[in-house]
Amino acid sequence: MNPINSVSEFLNCIEKGRILVALSGGGDSVCLLSVLKELGADICAFHLNHGIRGEEADRDQAFCRELCNDLGIRFYTKNADIPAVSKECGKGIEETARAVRYQLLNEIADATESRYIATAHNGDDNAETVIFNLVRGCSSDGLCGIPAVRGRIIRPLLNSTRAEIDAYLKERQIQYVTDSTNSDESYTRNKIRHSVMPVLRSINPSVVTAVSRLCESVRNDKNYFEDRLLECGSALPADLPLSLLTRQISKRYEAKTGLSLDFAHINKIAESVKNRVCTALDLPGKVCVYVYYGDYSFEKRTVCSEYCVHIQQGITEIPQKNTKIFYGNENVYKLATSVTVDCGKIVGSLYARPRMEGDRIKVFGVSKSVRKEFINKKIPLCVRNDIPIICDDEGIVYVPYIGADDRVFSNSGRHILGLLCSETEKHNEEK
């Protein structure tokens, strides 16, 4: 669609307000700026110098400043050392540049009281994004393409192709700058643009329009499934249809981390939930997913810290795990779990430590793996590492929810060992 018609139709569908244009100086963003100016929109512009391309980046910045000055448009610009920021935060150059750019765009939009931030993504960008997601291995959501509106971000040129934008610029003899890295096919998106898209156009000259129709169809399906998911409310995840469960997993992960989870991980989690097994998986974003008997949760991945806390008579707090242990000869209200022990059989002093690989306890004459007993008793994975192991100088004395070791257990014992009102108890009550 002609850029003027595309932008005009878009503006008619949103409420009026000031628009901050993300201006790179390239053809797409210059076209967007020019069309918005021509249509009489209330606009200002922002340009970010990424500090990546040296003199060329300085040239782009100067060009954008001069262009806005000629058009009478308020212009704002910032410089950032993206390579340094990328190295500091341990993320890729492209990812870092995008994050910094949107952060600064939002700051300038707030300062200028702009209702919207307009980027110049076009139909070709949308098609290239869908192909990129497809090759990477995405869920169906990855086929939705670039949204026309996301919060305050708007993309008025999505219904225009790059060829239509070029024709607009040529007809009006509008100058723009070219980023030399756009031809570097070491970037995946550039390879798709310069090598893949021409092949697809030879098969179907209207491939951009075809991809756009696909995106619209998939977005409609997505909206339907998300409505269904809301209707399911508090249903056990294992009872959800697979199409709803995979979407629920994706949304919960994104809410926890702000990231998107790839299809392979989503599928693995869904399979474990459906089979009602008990397992844990490490995921990107420094989180683990804990699957337990038809349900699951995402938790921040933490290293089980070493500790050794001496157990006193009365209540001993274990600050590392926000847990308390009671040891004494009187009843304590609302113990989560407890046993009676013969204090005369305790060797040396009592202390609490974290669970270790290979821990075993002998209960009623049977030596049991602590790990397997937690599984048998359906203790959720997300709390097992928070349960302290109580030992004396000879070995394990007591494991909450499992019991006391035979060597110290006594039905007639007057001393009680128990776990007192812990986060574990709260978790179990919630479940």
List keywords for this structure.
five-stranded antiparallel beta sheet, about 425 residues, six-stranded mixed beta sheet, disordered C terminus, Rossmann fold, alpha+beta, about 40% helix, 3 domains
Going by CATH, the architecture of the largest domain would be 3-Layer(aba) Sandwich
Overall outline: elongated
Q: What's the count of strands? A: 20
Q: CATH-wise, what's the superfamily of the largest domain?
A: HUPs
Into which percentage range does the β-strand content fall? 15-25%
- The radius of gyration computed from the alpha-carbon positions, rounded to a whole number of angstroms, is 30 Å
* Helix/sheet category: alpha+beta
Compute the number of helices: 14
How far apart the termini lie comes to 54 Å
- How many domains make up the 3D coordinates? 3
**CATH hierarchy class name of the largest domain:** Alpha Beta
**CATH fold group of the largest domain:** Rossmann fold
Task: Please describe what this structure looks like.
The protein has helices at residues 3-12, 27-38, 55-71, 82-89, 93-111, 123-136, 162-171, 188-203, 207-232, 242-257, 263-274, 370-376, 381-384, 423-430, and strands spanning 19-22, 43-49, 74-79, 116-118, 149-150, 153-154, 278-283, 287-292, 295-300, 309-310, 314-318, 323-328, 335-341, 351-353, 360-363, 366-369, 389-392, 395-399, 403-404, 415-420. With 431 residues, it is α+β, with helices and mostly antiparallel strands. The chain contains 14 helices and 20 strands. It folds into 3 domains: 3-204, HUPs (Rossmann fold, 3-Layer(aba) Sandwich), CATH 3.40.50.620; 233-300, no CATH class; 309-430, no CATH class. The chain has a 6-stranded mixed β-sheet with strand order 3-2-1-4-6-5, sandwiched between helices. Strand 18 and strand 19 (403-404) form a beta hairpin.
